[in-house]
């Protein structure tokens, strides 16, 4: 795993085939929405991190507010940008442990399962959680021992840090040597003032990440082999792009 033949042997053909259905955004949304309605609307499990405590560590001011607004993006289609390249790295073991930082909802976790990872080995960490699979916590000071995970996914979360180098150091710390890190950052052609005018507030950190090179620079000498770089910058002001990198750590 993520070699399909290895995933089939590990999960079993039936479970592997059922999980593959979650690759379809509409099906993944339906599953995530059902769990969301049960856990949030019925069980009242939605919780958020103490924002003042988070700001002390480096969380951007409007992070929780902004992400609560987007909580119902339950399919999380943009997670394909990181899950798909991870799914073809054959050095990742079938029983790899995976941490998703800032998944916001279960959609990203379900997408990782659809791409071959085992549900029991996937966990999340976020300032917002309603899911038993997502622990409440801050990426600047994660409650995990060194080298806890084979794969760490930080999808569209580094941009919410005022101390991104601290967050990057923590991500490296909880990744085992030789493990894989996948990072995504949104690219917007709008200027900071245009974004603030549109939303009424700054959604992320004061300093914006401008390129894949900027992402890699945060991790410095920890970067070993770069598997994937994706940098799409739309010119139209009504479109957003993505900057994604997947690499192993020394």
Taking pLDDT < 50 over at least 5 consecutive residues as the criterion, the unreliable ranges are none
Q: Note the beta-strand portion.
A: 15-25%
Mean pLDDT: 94
Largest sheet: 7 strands, mixed
Q: How many domains in all?
A: 1
The CATH class is identified as: Alpha Beta
- How many H/I helical runs? 10
CATH homologous superfamily title:
Vaccinia Virus protein VP39
User: What's the shape?
Assistant: globular
CATH level-two architecture: 3-Layer(aba) Sandwich
Helix-residue proportion = 25-40%
Structural class: alpha/beta
How many DSSP-defined strands?
9
What would you note in describing this structure?
- Helix 1 (about 5-10) packs across helix 2 (about 15-20).
- This protein has one domain: Vaccinia Virus protein VP39 (Rossmann fold).
- The mean pLDDT is about 95.
- The strands form two sheets. It has a seven-stranded mixed beta sheet, sandwiched between helices. A two-stranded antiparallel sheet has the order 1-4.
- It is built from ten helices and nine strands.
- It has helices spanning about 5-10, 15-20, 25-40, 50-55, 65-70, 80-85, 105-115, 165-175, 190-200, 210-220, and strands spanning about 45-50, 100, 120-125, 130, 135, 150-155, 175-185, 225-230, 240-250.
- The chain has about 250 residues and is α/β, with parallel strands linked by helices.
């Amino acid at each position: 795993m993520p070699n399909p033949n290895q995933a089939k042997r590990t999960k079993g053909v039936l479970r592997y085939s059922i999980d593959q259905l979650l690759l379809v955004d509409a099906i993944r949304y339906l599953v995530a929405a059902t769990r969301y309605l049960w856990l949030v609307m019925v069980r009242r499990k939605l919780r958020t991190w103490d924002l003042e405590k988070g700001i002390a560590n480096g969380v951007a001011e409007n992070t929780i507010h902004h992400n609560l607004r987007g909580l119902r993006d339950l399919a999380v289609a943009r997670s394909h940008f990181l899950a798909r390249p991870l799914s073809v790295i054959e050095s990742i073991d079938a029983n790899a442990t995976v941490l998703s930082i800032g998944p916001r909802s279960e959609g990203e976790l379900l997408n990782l399962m659809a791409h071959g990872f085992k549900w029991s080995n996937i966990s999340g960490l976020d300032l917002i959680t309603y899911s038993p699979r997502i622990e409440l916590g801050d990426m600047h000071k994660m409650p995990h021992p060194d080298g806890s995970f084979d794969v760490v996914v930080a999808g569209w979360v580094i941009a919410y840090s005022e101390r991104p180098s601290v967050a990057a150091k923590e991500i490296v710390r909880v990744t085992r040597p030789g493990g894989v890190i996948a990072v995504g950052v949104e690219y917007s052609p709008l200027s900071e003032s245009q974004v603030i005018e549109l939303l009424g507030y700054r959604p992320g950190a004061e300093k914006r990440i401008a390129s894949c090179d900027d992402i890699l620079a945060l991790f410095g000498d920890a970067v070993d082999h770069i598997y994937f770089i994706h940098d799409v910058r739309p010119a139209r002001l009504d479109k957003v792009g993505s900057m994604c990198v997947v690499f192993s750590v020394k």
